[in-house]
Amino acid sequence: NGAVSFGSPLQVLDKNPPRFPAFVPLYQQYDLDRGGNVFIKVVGENDAIDYALLTRSSLNIQNRFHQNDFRTRSMLIISFDKLLQAETDRVNSFQVVISQGDNATFLTYLFEEIECDTAVSGFSSGTEFFELPFQLLTNRSNIGEKG
């Protein structure tokens, strides 16, 4: 369904945003039986092979958000790859990246390919939902880059 929830699963696409903590990059009804994959990668400081990802994350956050002392200690990367919107041939690929440092955590949504015509995007604190304008997802961001 294109969301990451905490405490309760998101069952069926609903027009109402979730009332529990959730990251909602592209909430839509998908048909995984017809194709697409969801990958989860955990990166920590002990992962020598993936240490470059931590460095890249740190530099991006330092440069984009002016957090000069931020250092990414761990990351959770959830990749939604070539998901097919239910009852269509529309393909969607996107990522959720959670970068954790000593005193702060940053959430990044990366949109590679969006073909769906409607979806909900945003995040829920559990009591409030902040919705991102769907029509701006692929062309705008808060860091001056597309997607």
TrEMBL record:
UniProt xrefs under SMART domains: NIDO
Record-annotated NIDO domain positions: 25-147
InterPro entries reported in the protein's UniProt record: NIDO_dom
GO BP annotations, alphabetical order: cell-matrix adhesion
Protein name in UniProt: NIDO domain-containing protein
Organism: Parascaris univalens (Nematode worm)
Lineage: Eukaryota, Metazoa, Ecdysozoa, Nematoda, Chromadorea
